[in-house]
Amino acid sequence: MSTDQLAELHLHIEGSLEPPLIFELAERNALSLPYNDIDELRAKYEFTDLQSFLDLYYANMAVLQTAEDFADLARAYFRRTAQAGVTHAEIFFDPQAHTERGVSLEAVVEGLADACATSEREFGVTSGLIASILRDKPVLHANQLLDDLLAMQAPIIGLGLDSAEVGYPPSLFVDVFAKARAEGLHVVAHAGEEGPPDYIWQALDLLKVERIDHGVRCLEDEALVNRLVEEQIPLTVCPLSNVRLKVIDNVEQLPLRQMLERGLSVSINSDDPAYFGGYVDDNFSALEAGMGLTAAERQQLAENSIRASFVTV
Ligand code: HPA
Ligand SMILES: [Zn+2]
């Protein structure tokens, strides 16, 4: 495996919407924002938990209206993540967050697919799209979304599960995940971010996911850790996200070294870089400063990211 490869496997493209682009798109689409300037908007980026972040994340998406907006968003991410050293990105998007406010699924998919189609040529980053179900919306909407994506032959590589976790267990989505698997899609789910270890068990046993997004709460359950190690289920960990959403107090609290020593397949990801203080390089820098991440550990994390990706290398 080449040493200079790095994959980002846990990135919500809407979470890469930086404040300057929010203002640019508001102007382009003749929308008025409830903030006078970028500083006033940035002052809102203080979160107490996942929901307090999601409220702003969904509100800011209002500026994303056309296929061009989505393409510009994704290109901005590819440009920045290439600088971070990322060579492959598997990108989440939240279709329901857009269709529910009147943006067509076609516009969303067309714009993102357009940027992905040229990401390697333009930025040296290979890419794939993963449509994520909003777990706090009705299950019927999730089924309809998958049907719509399949009907339009959307160029997606997988199905994911995100948004408010507690109270919305993976078990709700057994049918839609079974259908996605039958259609040859990869399947992943957010679990064990704020939710309990039981949600990780459910994601594995009921949804049969190939990766767990976040998953840091697995450490509360020794039998679960054993299972994740034995089956080498990748965990896409997001240190700065965990700090900003108060899952942990600081990066030192993330027992990353123990996770690696235990043999868990951990990778480092930015989740929502415009909201949580940076991209993959910023996450690595925080780990170096906070826990003295070594070059060997960094290399291990990079290798894990490539092995956990849905491309063959
Ligand atoms: O960290 C997250 N967790 C759940 N849903 C999300 N949607 C965007 N980011 C996240
Ligand atoms: Zn996430």
UniProtKB/TrEMBL annotation:
Its cofactor is Zn(2+). Zn(2+) binds at residues 10, 12, 190, 271. The active site is at residue 193. The keyword Electron transport does not apply. The keyword Hydrolase applies. Catalyzes the hydrolytic deamination of adenine to hypoxanthine. Plays an important role in the purine salvage pathway and in nitrogen catabolism. This is Adenine deaminase.
